[in-house]
Design goal:
alpha+beta; single chain; 75 residues
C-alpha cells in the first residue's frame, strides 16, 4: 500500500487495478474508486478503535486536527 501511494503522482486515475480480495476472487476496479474506498475503510477501522477505547477506563488523547496543530489553545 505504501508503495502505491508513494507513486500516486505517476498513476493515471482512469486506469484499473487487478487484485485478489479476501475471498480469493480476482477483480479489476477503477483506481479512483479504490482510493476513495481505502480512505473510507481506514476511517471505518478508526471508528472501531474509538469505540473499543471508549469502553475502557483509559481516556484516549484528543486526535482532533485543531488540537494537534494547537495543543495549548483553549478555543
Amino acid at each position: 500500500m505504501k508503495i502505491f501511494f508513494q507513486h500516486l503522482d505517476e498513476i493515471k486515475f482512469d486506469q484499473t487495478i487487478r487484485y485478489r480480495n479476501s475471498a480469493g476472487n480476482i477483480h479489476d476496479d477503477p483506481i479512483d474508486i479504490l482510493i476513495m474506498h481505502f480512505f473510507n475503510h481506514q476511517t471505518h477501522h478508526r471508528g472501531q478503535i474509538h469505540d473499543m477505547l471508549t469502553q475502557t477506563i483509559v481516556k484516549p488523547p484528543s486526535l482532533d486536527m485543531h488540537r494537534i496543530l494547537r495543543p495549548n489553545s483553549t478555543v
